[in-house]
Amino acid sequence: MKVTLSALDTSESSFTPLVVIELAQDVKEETKEWLKNRIIAKKKDGGAQLLFRPLLNKYEQETLENQNLYLVGASKIRMLLGAEAVGLVKECNDNTMRAFTYRTRQNFKGFDDNNDDFLTMAECQFIIKHELENLRAKDE
């Protein structure tokens, strides 16, 4: 079964933040909205297909006043497909090092479908950073 990025959901309300984006105080609302839409848009539409939400106050009830801080994360499948896209090299069960592929994920040491620890925090942040750096305006 081939998993495609278009099948992934980008509207999870609760996710593990991996990257924080801070925008300048004088950024226009339309620019914020454009960036948000680009980050959560599906890959086939030129987006990063990541999870995105504003940083909330300590009670997680409302956005912090006058702050342009946003949290970015990704679903587990999106992270694994991102690892393949960036050519992340991981150790296989036969003790060799190979570029990770989602299709052959079971061949990699420490991989388990129920385990979220296969990718390190640094690897996850690298994948998110790579996706954000490769955002481009299409026809806007």
Can you walk me through this structure?
This is Anoctamin 10. It comes from Homo sapiens. This protein has 140 residues and is of the alpha+beta class. It has one domain (18-134). It has three helices and five strands; from the N terminus they run βαββαββα. It has a three-stranded antiparallel beta sheet with strand order 1-3-2. The relative contact order is 0.19. The model has no long low-confidence stretch (mean pLDDT 85).
Features of this protein?
two-stranded antiparallel ribbon, three-stranded antiparallel beta sheet, Anoctamin 10, elongated, 140 residues, 3 helices
Pattern of helices and strands:
EHEEHEEH
Q: Count the domains.
A: 1
Helix/strand-derived category reads alpha+beta
- How many extended strands? 5
Give the low-confidence spans.
Answer: none
Given the structure, what is the number of helices? 3
Overall morphology: elongated
Radius of gyration, in Å, reads: 16 Å
Instruction: State the separation between the terminal residues, measured CA to CA.
Output: 35 Å
**Overall mean confidence score, pLDDT:** 85
Beta-strand portion reads 5-15%
Approximate helicity band: 25-40%
Spatial strand sequence of the major β-sheet: 1-3-2
Largest sheet: 3 strands, antiparallel
